[in-house]
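User: For my dataset I need records formatted as: sequence, then structure tokens, nothing else. Please produce one.
Assistant:
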Amino acid sequence: MSVPSFLRLPCGGAALLLAAVLAAGATQAGESDSARWRRQAQAVVIVRDDWGIAHVHGRSDAAAVFGAIYAQAEDDFPRIESNYLDALGWRAQAEGESALWSDLRQRLFIDEAQLHRLYGQSPRWLRTLMEAWADGLNYYLATHPQVRPKVITHFEPWMALSFTEGSIGGDIERAALGPLRDFYGRAGDAPLAAAETLPHEDEPRGSNGIAIAPQLSADGRALLLINPHTSFFFRSELQMRSDEGLDVYGAATWGQFFIYQGFNAHIGWMHTSTTADAVDEFAETIVRRDGRLFYRYGSELRPLAVREIAIPCRGTDGALHERRFTVYATHHGPIVRAADGRWIALALMNRPIEALEQSWLRTKTRDYASYLKVAGLKANSSNNTLLADDKGEIAYLHPQFMPRRDDRFDYTRPVDGSDPATDWHGLHALDELPQVRNPPNGWVFNTNDWPYSAAGPYSPRRQDYPRYMDSVGENPRGLHALRVLEGRRDFTLAGLIDAAFDPYLPAFASLLPRLLADYDALPAGDARKAALAGPIALLRGWDDRWGVTSMPTTLAVFWGDTLWDALAHPEAGGDPYARMADPAASSSRLAALQQAVARLERDFGSYGVPWGTVNRFQRIDGAIAPHFDDTKPSLPVAFTSARWGSLASFGARRWPGTRRYYGTSGNSFVAVVAFGPGKPVARAVSAGGESGDAHSPHFADQAERYTTGDLRAVYFDEAELSGHIERRYHPGE
């Protein structure tokens, strides 16, 4: 048996590895946990490149999982534990009553006993991966006694099933905590600790994905842009390889053992948060009879499901106490609030086994056909997907978990749960969804907008699909993507990066002419005419493009933020951009400019301030909760909030004690990949760096590249890694 050079270790390491491989699978009865972990560790090699990124190789998929999660824990164990405190509904054990309601929300959907049962029902191959996942984390804790978990001192395999949709569990967050507390709380409960924020401080969630067909690329290769917009440091960048055919690179959510957005040797995939409606509220009619609770469903009265949830909570004295809740559910889902005299049940996808299967199996697909076969599990509820493969195929896929509903009803609001016609009626078949494969125009994209512009004139037609296939419509980033894609026939990796960082801001290109017209219409004697002459002149000469030295960008963003706060409150509904551009909003637009000028002059001494002076990237320490300091080093960032149509998103705002804007979300992991013929070629960058340890050289070594869009080479195979290896080791060494 030969050992690949990728696995060869110095000082006899290869011999140790070979011996371990020959013994693999021969677990002795009664083998201790520590002995099993050591044996597994010897079947794994982790190579750290000169950016600190882990390239993990195992003799089996399970060995690769063991090594990958061990490497993640080395980089940022606190974020792993934090994600599972959320997913399991255990955060109150660490943080006390402030986390009680988020724990209750999670536990309405995630039941530990049910997860144990689901683990037992999982296919053997999936249980093997979950066992390797738990072993890798436990081996990390055993070999790092200085690490002090807040709550989870031992991981169990069933915990890997605690994400209802396989990835981040975002669907559950649709249940607002305030109304949940009002429904299940009691007199004397502390109010929610909610930070006061302005509407403009809520950065739009989302991502960008673009796939380019070979006929539009300069060298005849399919291209893919992978550009998730998440909170910073949300995912780990790594590679996983095994002798069972696994060879995948990309971004993995901390604590999960699959690559969420990335590529293998044949195909790449990018997920963008969907605007399709797959989470619905049902207004239930509750009836009390003979001391029991029922809900009306057609002509029936059905008994309300009732159970008790016990949530451990850390008290102010440091001791754990238990809070018990009696909770309710209908066949639609758990009750999460009350409104207008009705109880509201929340329906969402909760298929942990299928979600985890689909998340893993897609990493081993080889082309569009095999990817679509995996998608047939229908356990993706929250993501659109952009695909490109080495056969030259490109595609846009809609979320595969799509409940079939009666389109007479408006599912963006609670529907009448007593009317059987409002029920979900199974799931749509994949060929019933608005999807695109190999369109003649040669590109597909999504920016969290509707699917009806995904391929320009070759997109699905809105009138052919139910309303619930999209609930938002187009957005400024979608308009921007169309602008950079239409008419291009010479894309390269560098050209795709340029498109991803194109500085045009379509929202301002649309809104500022309204402001200029408002100003021009002022009477000559109006005091605002003279007071705003300088700022208006600055904006009038702007080309609607961001830049670190651009003073108009700063003024436009401050004006836009102020106007957004005045007119774009979420509760107002409708199109906020239309309200901002409404002819009747002239006085609001001018007042917002006055306020923006006043704030810039107060905070920076002038309304003419370079954007890079204000807009900054800073990473002070590894704390999960962000905090910032104007007196400490930071880097200028040219791009803006996605709100204004910047494809490269940087969600930044002022923080307590700061005058400058500091970013916490937006562009996080950015990669471009070229497929076929031959091996994939890729470039990438992550916000800050790979490590969460402020003392690591890889804590902020990518920060400047991130802020300038200077993507580095990805080392996908052994030849590319050669000369860039910082360390090679077995887990535990």
